[in-house]
Amino acid sequence: STIRQQRSIQRIPGPPPSSWLLGNMLQLFLPPYGYYDDIWRKTYGTVYRFQGCFGRDRLMISDPLALQHILNSGEFEFAPIFDTLFRWLFGERNMAVLKGEEHRNLRTAWNAAFTAGAVRQYQPILEKVAQGISEKLDPSDSPAIDICPLISSATVGSTTEVVFGCAVDDLGAEFVESNSNIMASSASQSSAQILIDEFGGLLPSWLFRRTIYLPTKASQALRTHVELASREGWRLVHEKMDAAKQGLDGGDDVYSMLCEYICAFTNKSLRPEDIVAQTSVMMIGGSDTTAYTLVWALVELAKNPELQDSLRAEIHGRPRTSRGDVAYDSMPLLNATIKESLRMYPVRPWTYRVATKDTFIPLSQSILSTNGERLSQIQVKKGQLVTLGFASYQKLESRWGEDSGQFNPGRWLESRVPQSAAIGPYANLLAFSGGSHTCVGWRLAVLEMQVILSELIDKFAFSLPVEESIEPRYMTNLMPTNADGQKRAAFCVKRVL
Ligand code: HEM
Predict the structure, then answer these.
(1) What's the whole-model pTM score?
(2) Where heme is bound, by residue (predicted)?
(3) Does residue 289's CB lie within 6 angstroms of at least one atom of ligand 1?
């Protein structure tokens, strides 16, 4: 049956591999970003077969119904590559690697700290952090300013204030340093890296996971990082548990709220160690992701001065709620710009899942197999690795229009985008994934981007220097880089207010 299964996958059309060793991996994952994926989607359709390393068949899926099924049916789980990577980066009990009942319980508690109402309470904190960066942005500095460090420090600051209830400087210096080293070193992509990941994925999971105990510098750094995160997490949680036990007002941050929740309820579905175990994933998951999406919005606004001026006019007219807070949700162009940035530049352009049983993946549009058969569903065997093409889905002409390859916030204002067929948590996009592992911080990320973009466009005008370009590069995240592939986003900045 394995052979028949292979045949059925092999009947799905796709590009020829460029080598046995690396298949199509270099074409897909090395620059220029998205080039081959665009061509192959247009040539072969919303499901195409490509080759991973060592001749292994892979599926790239951008069909909306198929994606929804994979994310929501419970028949697929995180593939070993990400599962192992996440264990190394975030520790064994972080929410991205927990499964089933355990994961559901943890998410129930955690989601309560990220509801629309809860996130609204974080607005003043985020506004304070955003003002902090615009004070540090000094246009007289030099002709072109790399905006990455400033935006990153704003998003890291937002995460620590909102989640831990403290400034970055109040965390242990060792932990903060280890965190930025880990973020920098996990952002890489090369043919060697791809081979190692793929080879690791072939090992039994228990063995792959243990390669972290190899005596290399990188694995030592990862182990130290997880220990530091745990130490820091315990310090924060002890403090907040003490406050909660004494009935003191511990603050509005996520950790304080969760500690109060533990003290208030006798059913112990959440334990202090469950909070501690999320310290690393919170720090890392919430920072570069939001920062890069913001940089992409700035790049597109810099390319289109009229759009930037219209957005500035909307920001200057700041609508307010009856309580006097800025009503970011009532700013149509701001929100359209954010949605369009998430659509065109999903920080995680694709993710992987593995089938936990023999099953079928339904398709919204049938595809033609290599022998001319119409397939309305795809048969997969337990263990089949599938690539979820979030970036591909977000470029489907059938969903987003003929100009889907262009950055055009107007599509959201003219309601040319799908209104129904809810997929993903936000605006029918999959940039935040979907299903049980949907990004826990998506509402926070949206508010953070609303606040920071408003602050920056309010006070500064951005344009692109002639001598430098900013290119998206897939480095596990979709990172802004210069022509040499270094993380950098250089802008000419002028103060306007
Ligand atoms: C624009 C910003 C962001 C983007 C594009 C983004 C994207 C994603 C994606 C795609 C996933 C799922 C990965 C998969 O299914 O394979 C995810 C999960 C996650 N994100 Fe985000 N994220 C963002 C901001 C944040 C923020 C601000 C936080 C925290 C404060 C956060 C914390 C997490 C966590 C903890 C998970 C794991 C959830 C689980 O597995 O249950 N993210 N994110």
Answers:
(1) 0.94
(2) 439
(3) yes
